[in-house]
Write a structure and sequence with these properties.
The protein has 274 residues and is α/β, with parallel strands linked by helices. The chain has 8 helices and 11 strands. It has one domain: Class I glutamine amidotransferase (GATase) domain (Rossmann fold, 3-Layer(aba) Sandwich), CATH 3.40.50. Helix 3 packs across helix 5. The longest helix is centred in the last third of the chain and has 14 residues.
Length: 274
């Protein structure tokens, strides 16, 4: 098959699009960055791509809650063809394609109702809100992968060291019924943990106080994946603040960053199945 085409959305305060494009290029995909208005105006068709990406940033300055304004714009905006962008997204998913949202992008996905979508009605069931610390958290953390989750983004990964940089990353679930379904269906795919993979809910290992210790979430199909940490910011070992010690202690360590595995996984999965 031809190269996997990956669409990265930018505009309105998104600012991590170049790092995400680099991640896909390193993974062997064709990565294209386009302003959301190009999609609304019909100049770019999301159906021409295999992966739709919502990067991190500060959409509309996070003035009404992180991601809320842009998520509403994406859910209700009418495009030049008369369809809503949200209707185009649902068609994209029906065709078996994939969506990734990181940090601000994760906030878009939950506030549009794409994640976790337990009811199947595309209504918001969870949120990401202000950190318990009351401040912007900019630190490296570890995430434990739920091996029973079905998303191909996380194949073969156990523990991920990644940076977080957010002020509103606290995951909150609407009610106990939805929380129980998330647990039952293994949708809570990433949990904050220590360096050895022991799940830890205490600050600062959990940087925001998230319920379920949730750092990442998928829908029931595994096609949609959202996470607060930034895998696109760990594409090289030399991105890690402790890289020099790691090289000394583990001389054979790969020079690839652990975050790159997520992008390799999804590109390889699409290539195998199309």
């Amino acid at each position: 098959m031809k190269k996997v085409r990956s669409l990265i959305i930018t505009g309105f305060g998104i600012n991590c699009e170049e790092e995400m494009a680099s991640a896909y290029q390193l993974a062997g995909a064709d990565a294209e960055i386009h302003h959301l208005n190009d999609i609304f105006g019909g100049r770019i068709n999301i159906q021409d791509y295999f992966i739709l990406n919502f990067p991190g940033g500060f959409a509309f300055g996070d003035d009404l809650g992180s991601g809320k304004v842009l998520s509403n714009k994406m859910k209700f905006k009418k495009m030049s063809n008369g369809n809503s962008f949200f209707a185009e997204i649902r068609k994209f998913l029906r065709d078996g394609k994939f969506i990734l949202g990181i940090c601000n992008g994760f906030q878009f996905l939950v506030k549009m109702g794409l994640l976790p979508n337990i009811s199947g009605k595309w209504q918001q069931e969870v949120t990401l809100t202000r950190n318990d610390s009351g401040k912007f958290e900019d630190r490296w953390i570890h995430c434990k992968v739920n091996s029973q989750n079905r998303t191909p983004f996380l194949d073969g990964i156990d523990v991920l060291p990644l940076p977080v940089r957010h002020g509103e990353g606290k995951f909150i679930v609407k009610n106990e019924k939805i929380k129980n379904e998330i647990l039952k269906k293994k949708l809570n795919c990433l949990s904050y943990c220590d360096a050895k993979g022991n799940i830890v809910a205490e600050y600062p290992l959990n940087p925001n106080g998230a319920e379920l210790n949730c750092a990442g979430l998928t829908d029931k199909t595994g096609q949609i994946f959202g996470l607060m940490p930034h895998p696109e910011a760990f594409l090289s070992l030399y991105n890690h603040p402790d890289w020099a010690r790691l090289k000394r202690v583990f001389p054979q360590i790969s020079e690839k960053g652990a975050g790159l595995k997520i992008f390799n996984n999804i590109v390889e999965h699409i290539m195998r199945n199309n």
